[in-house]
Write a structure and sequence with these properties.
The protein is mainly beta and 261 residues long. The chain has helices spanning 4-21, 31-34, and strands at residues 23-24, 27-28, 51-55, 58-63, 66-72, 79-81, 88-90, 113-116, 123-127, 135-138, 143-146, 151-154, 170-173, 180-187, 190-197, 202-205, 210-213, 219-222, 229-236, 239-246, 253-254, 259-260. The structure holds 2-acetamido-2-deoxy-beta-D-glucopyranose (NAG) (4 copies).
């Protein structure tokens, strides 16, 4: 019986080494590999376009440099094709809009930090600026993004999380996470998931379709999604009241100072 112990320890070490070696960081995709990706058009780009592709499958109508309406492409011609003046809907995808889930697109950052890709497990996003395009990181072939480690893990160890959208538009959780979630937009037979993240210490509620913040105590706490805002927590009648407050423009909330600087 005791002779087995060294073997089990050896096996345990082997397993832990293997596990460690199977988690690797991804590499940032450079500009030339991202050139083939879809970039949403902007009505305010100064070119006077009458419409732009706001996603692979929808158009924004422009008036006076502003987007005034969002029009999804019909199921028969589901793909928006950008033109020099106006867009058209066709059956062939524009650059970066493959019909498979394998396209590599930057996302418009809804939060700071690391976010999974909503449709491609092999890549993930690093968001350094809100509402700007993400930096796209790609895992080696046969690896997928793991949200816990924020690294790439071999498909041989476990499987990637896939977002399963319903038949109608709505919110779904990202795997077992209650902090990360996706908005599935179903329009004319085309389903597009968009990934989101609740700030740290909050969870997404499918009842209210919003992030619910849990106060750690009384005081002010930075909003990890957007440090130019913070949560104010105080006790009223024995339970916490939480409100989201915004810092003056150009400042971020500093938790140790307890003010925006
Ligand atoms: C960008 O990535 C592509 C594909 O991985 C590679 O062939 C190319 O040499 C890279 N370019 C630069 C400037 O790193
Ligand atoms: C991600 O990694 C963690 C920590 O190793 C593990 O517990 C979890 O199961 C992994 N997630 C998935 C979806 O495999
Ligand atoms: C405080 O709690 C008591 C007992 O639950 C309730 O009667 C009262 O209305 C509450 N006061 C406020 C301001 O919510
Ligand atoms: C908060 O302020 C302290 C004291 O000025 C400073 O050392 C620290 O770097 C600041 N933290 C952030 C996140 O700005």
């Amino acid at each position: 019986m005791h002779r087995r112990l060294p073997f089990l320890i050896f096996l345990y070490n082997l397993l832990s080494i293997t596990q460690a070696q199977l988690d690797v960081p991804g590499v940032r995709l450079n500009r030339s590999s991202l050139l083939r990706t879809f970039t949403p058009g902007s009505c305010s780009d100064g070119t006077g376009r009458t419409s732009v592709c706001s996603s692979c499958s929808s158009q924004s109508l422009c008036f006076g440099g502003n987007a005034i309406a969002e029009v999804p492409c019909p199921g028969s011609n589901p793909y928006c094709n950008p033109g020099s003046v106006e867009t058209s809907c066709s059956s062939s995808p524009a650059a970066g809009c493959g019909s498979t889930g394998s396209q590599v697109n930057a996302i418009v950052c809804p939060a700071l930090g690391v976010l999974p890709d909503p449709s491609n497990c092999n890549v993930y996003h690093v968001c350094r600026n809100l509402q700007q395009n993400s930096d796209v990181y790609q895992c080696p072939p046969g690896y997928h993004f793991n949200l816990t480690t924020k690294w790439c893990r071999s498909d041989q160890v476990d499987q990637c999380v896939r977002i399963t959208c319903g038949t109608t538009s709505g919110f779904v959780y990202y795997g077992n996470s209650r902090q990360y979630f996706a908005l599935c937009v179903v329009a004319n037979g085309v389903t597009t998931p968009y990934i989101f993240k609740c700030p740290d210490r909050s969870t997404f509620s499918v009842n209210t379709n919003s992030c619910v913040y849990q106060c750690a105590g009384q005081g002010n706490f930075v909003n990890s999604n957007d440090p130019s805002s913070f949560y104010q927590c105080y006790l009223a009648n024995g339970s916490y009241v939480v409100t989201l407050q915004r810092c003056p423009t150009g400042t971020v909330f500093n938790e140790s100072l307890q003010y925006c600087s």
